[in-house]
């Protein structure tokens, strides 16, 4: 692995081998998502707890302080919306020149295995890897399912993660599944981070699946809505960081959450 690639990955994956990425890219297909209407204000109190931001170039320029931020994973796929026909019909939206100009630590795009646009999105990934490897820029593949959340089982996720890794992704973001998540991770030869998915009912649900996923081999999380849509986002971020970087169990994470929440 070239020095530049190692250096960028080390900015994102901490010395303990773990990471907490905070995605705020939801607006690229959802528009002004609840609690992300003003993304710069949303992330300001959360930055001390995360290791990287997953963000589009528009929000990066408009809302993220270049002098006071965390390493950036740039969302570079899009072209669809919630009101469109199919969320899977994505293209690469950002040139390699723009990626270099923004000095990001990595880029990320979605792949939709099993959809009508499987070949297109996997081709997007392969072409992006071809370009980014020339400049030492890691690519994170996101195993997206669009609106078809029932696809989130180990067989489908394992297939999607392995294909993404085979095409050259350096990191894969995928959903946690209750059964056989360890097989998903074991079958993927590159690091796996856990996606948050839809907002959970309460914080304990989040702690449960994050802790389980970490025990089964994930290196961290790429989780947004269950943090910044929480009624206590700082408490949530602090608790999740404890699971990821301090080996806290679910009980300890809940204690940290309650203590932080009660402090205001």
Strand arrangement within the widest β-sheet reads 1-2-3-6-7-8-9-10
What is the CATH superfamily? Aldolase class I
* CA gyration radius, whole angstroms: 17 Å
- The level of helicity is 40-55%
CATH architecture: Alpha-Beta Barrel
Proportion of residues in β-strands: 15-25%
Shape: globular
Query: What structural class do helix, strand and pairing data support?
Result: alpha/beta
- As for the number of domains, it is 1
Task: Output the number of helix runs.
Answer: 12
Order of helices and strands: HEHHEHEEEHEHEHEHEHEHHH
Question: How many β-strand runs?
Answer: 10
CATH topology label: TIM Barrel
| CATH level-1 class | Alpha Beta
Quaternary organisation of the protein chains? single chain
- Give the overall pLDDT as a whole number: 95
Query: Distance between termini?
Result: 45 Å
Structural description of this entry:
The structure is a single chain. Helices cover 42% and strands 15% of the residues. By secondary structure, the chain is an alpha/beta fold. The strands form two sheets. Strands 1-2-3-6-7-8-9-10 form an eight-stranded parallel beta barrel, surrounded by six helices. A two-stranded antiparallel sheet has the order 4-5. It is built from twelve helices and ten strands. It has one domain (3-200, 216-229): Aldolase class I (TIM Barrel). It has helices spanning 3-12, 27-30, 39-43, 57-63, 96-101, 118-133, 154-166, 181-186, 203-215, 225-228, 233-245, 250-262, and strands at residues 19-23, 52-55, 72-75, 77-78, 91-92, 106-111, 139-143, 171-175, 192-195, 220-222. It is globular.
């Amino acid at each position: 692995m070239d020095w530049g690639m190692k250096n960028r990955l080390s900015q994102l994956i901490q010395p303990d081998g773990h990471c907490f990425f905070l995605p705020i890219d939801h607006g690229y297909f959802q528009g002004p998502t609840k609690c992300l209407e003003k993304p710069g204000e949303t992330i300001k109190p959360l930055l001390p707890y995360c290791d990287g931001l997953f963000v589009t170039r528009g929000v990066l320029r408009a809302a993220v302080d270049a002098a006071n931020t965390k390493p950036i994973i740039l969302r570079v796929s899009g072209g669809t919306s919630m009101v469109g026909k199919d969320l899977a019909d994505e293209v690469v939206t950002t040139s390699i020149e723009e990626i270099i100009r923004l000095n990001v630590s990595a880029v990320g795009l979605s792949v939709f295995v099993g959809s009508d646009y499987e070949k297109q999105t996997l081709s997007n990934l392969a072409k992006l890897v071809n370009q980014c490897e020339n400049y030492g820029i890691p690519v994170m593949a996101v195993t997206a399912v669009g609106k078809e959340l029932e696809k989130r089982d180990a067989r489908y996720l394992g297939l999607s993660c392995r294909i993404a890794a085979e095409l050259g992704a350096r990191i894969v973001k995928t959903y946690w599944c209750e059964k056989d998540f360890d097989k998903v991770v074991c079958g993927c030869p590159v690091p796996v981070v856990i996606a948050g998915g839809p907002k959970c009912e309460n914080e304990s649900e989040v702690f449960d699946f994050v802790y389980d996923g970490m025990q089964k081999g994930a290196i961290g999380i790429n989780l947004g809505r269950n943090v910044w849509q929480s009624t206590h986002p700082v408490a949530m971020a602090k608790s999740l960081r404890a699971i990821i970087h301090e080996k806290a169990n679910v009980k300890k994470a809940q204690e940290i959450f309650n203590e932080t929440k009660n402090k205001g």
